[in-house]
Design a protein that fits this description.
Blueprint: H1 7-10, H2 14-30, H3 37-53, H4 58-70, H5 82-96, H6 101-112, H7 124-135, H8 152-159, E1 160-168, E2 173-180, H9 187-207, E3 211-216, E4 219-220
Parallel strand pairs: 2-3
Antiparallel strand pairs: 1-2, 3-4
Helix pairs in contact: 3-4, 3-7, 4-6, 4-7, 5-6, 6-7, 7-9
Length: 222
Amino acid sequence: MYNNVTYEFIRCDDEVLTYMSAGDHVLEVMGYTEHGLTHSTIVAGWANDILEAFGYSEKECELAKIAGFLHDIGNAINRVNHAQSGALMAYDILTRLKMDPVDISNIIAAIGNHDESTGIPTSPVSAALMIADKSDVRRSRVRSSDQASFDIHDRVNYAVEHARLFVDGNEKTVTLSLNIDTNIAAKIDYFEIFLSRMLMCRKAASYLGATFILYMNESRMI
């Protein structure tokens, strides 16, 4: 008999929380922005919101939340190939919890394909995870306030004062609206490091039959 594993159960599981904390620590040592519980919770919520607005089933929304929460767990091993190693870790955890293999396969495919260097949308769950993950750009992800120590990733994230994701089920649009302090980073800096991520968002939105739109300081960019 398979268990009905829920997002609320996963986000409180001690094993999950241990690996996620370890992964965020690895990235902190490597000098990366925050990839811990805050990021994972935001991604889980946005992935759910996207599918919910587009009329997908409650089950698919729940799977999107679980995939969103677990997507960076592979960083506990290494940043390199973290999508694939994370998918394998999620497989072990969800199998231990006796989740339905059909649901596990949906989640691990989403996790294994969320990185822009190798990933493609394979399902609504996968597409929603891609958009949610790549849209989480914000000042609070930067671990230091010492701007003299920033690399371009830190500078661009720190420049983003507010980031909002709007999903319009009727118009079939997903809109990322950013308020950027251009005294810290120019708009072109964002595209210099995040162009591949925005292209992934466009591809993922297209998979859902939608359009991805990016606004910066109330000006439409894509």
